[in-house]
Amino acid sequence: MALPKFYLEPRKPKDAKVQSLKLAINMYYSFYGQRLQYYTGIRIEPKYYKSGTEAKPTDKSDVNKLISDSAPYASVIKTNLKQIALDAQNIANTAKANNIPVTKQYLTTELDKIHKHKPQIEHTKEEDIKHDFISYYEQVIKEKKEGTREISSGKNLGKKFTLNSIKNYTSTLKAVKRYMDYKKIKTLPLQAVNKSFYNDFKKFCFNKEKKEVSTFAGYIKDIKSTMGEIAPDIFKAKDFVKPGYEADTIYLTDEQIDKIANLNLSDGSKSIATKKDGADATVSYSTLDKVRDLALIGFYTGLRFSDFSKLDIQNIDGDYIKVKQKKTGGRVTIPIMNKLRPTLLKYPEGPPALSNQKFNNWIKLVAKLAGLTEEKTIMNTKGNIENKITQPLFMLISSHCCRRSYATNMFNKGVPTMLIMNSTGHKTEVAFLKYIRATNEDKAMLMAAAMKKLGL
Q1: What is the homologous superfamily of the domain 254-453 according to CATH?
Q2: Is 419:426 a contact under the CB 8 Å cutoff?
Q3: CB neighbours (10 Å) of residue 386?
Q4: Each residue of 168-200: pLDDT tens digit?
Q5: What is the overall mean pLDDT for the chain?
Q6: Please, is 117 exposed, middle or buried when counting C-beta atoms within 10 Å of its C-beta (0-12, 13-18, 19+)?
């Protein structure tokens, strides 16, 4: 089937004065021998609609080229048109697959259920804007949770937002609300999300809440995305600088992982002292045994906690683990290490269920029992200030250490970067090389080994 196309209503203004009138954008969709004309609910001034020339007309299915970037709320218009086109195709294809007669009336009715009651985009003045930042941001989160808002660009076009994306958006919203409470701000108009807001919010995050640079960068990413959608004509993205950062976190060597793997936790009557909500508590060896096994799955696969803690028999295909990553939606195929097989056999129905918080608390106890007590110094950037922290190694271990250890150890063994990235799901070598914990000396030794093999 042809792609849906968009046209202005066939009315040609006779003089320049009428050029300021908004004309309706209609969608024309050819499907299974029929052609639907559907009013999108969007109007635009003709000067912002780029029809091209007779010799080289603009592709009417490509809204990015069809709608001028200078149009008021251009990104919102483009997003909505893309969504209508996507919904039309999905409705027609789904109906056909289920043997439902696909008619123009059926398609119109189903599209109306989704789009008819959405407010028309006709804003041209600031006073016409019905949302402030908080109300619009809350609407975005609500639509993502309900699944009515889908990804509108890139390779994941048309897919639902991941739980991780929604979680990040929610964290940013809470941070902005805390800032507003601190500054005694009752409402945050869209035009107030400007350079002054950025500077004040930055001071609040770093000076008041002592946030990491990575956390603040995540807030700014979400704010820029939201403002670029709702108010691109008044929002100055260049004023919202997303700071760069490189996390300084630890990884465990093969020898250190072996200490954890060889730790005897078979006596379930034993326990180790810890703290729970500030009070003294104990954790049994039988619980720590499950935590250790879960960690080994992470160390030997390089998966994120959200993926390795949810493995089941369906993910295992012969000598490989195949997973659709929860965070990115990307698919990875990971060869099963010999060291991992005993653990997988121990849990044929999948690893024990455990929250990330409990895992991060208890894996430290496992590592302590395994003797990983040497002092380790790392840097963090709390409050946008570099701080040195020296702690016993076991105190620095978390679920993310598993994934970083896998990638770094594979790299140090000389496994080609491209093959490791195929397992970890990294998209670029630049991002991967920032991620691993290999030193310059490690890289030099690998280079020397490669040169020796080549006889250089």
Answers
A1: Intergrase catalytic core (1.10.443.10)
A2: no
A3: 11
A4: 999 999 999 999 999 999 999 988 999 999 999
A5: 84
A6: exposed
Reported confidence tier of residue 246, pLDDT bands at 50, 70, 90: low
Residue 150 and residue 76 in contact, taking contact as beta carbons nearer than 8 Å: no
Element (H, E) at 317: strand 316-317
Task: State the DSSP H helix or E strand holding residue 296, giving kind and residue range, or none if neither.
Answer: helix 285-301
**Strand, coil or helix: what is 263?**
coil
Alpha carbon of 442 to those of 26, 109, 319, 439: distances in Å?
60, 63, 30, 5
66 touches 6 (CB < 8 A): yes
Res. 301 pLDDT band, cuts 50 70 90? very high
Q: Residue 142: in which H helix or E strand, if any?
A: helix 133-146
**Domain spans of the chain, in order of start:** 5-124, 128-245, 254-453
Q: 18-74: per-residue pLDDT in tens?
A: 445 788 899 999 998 899 999 998 888 888 888 887 778 888 988 888 988 777 777
Question: Token pair for residue 124?
Answer: 């041209």
Residue of 233, 255, 175 whose CA lies nearest to 209: 175
Please state, in angstroms and rounded to a whole number, the distance separating the CA atoms of residues 257 and 442.
19
| Helix, coil or strand: residue 276 | strand
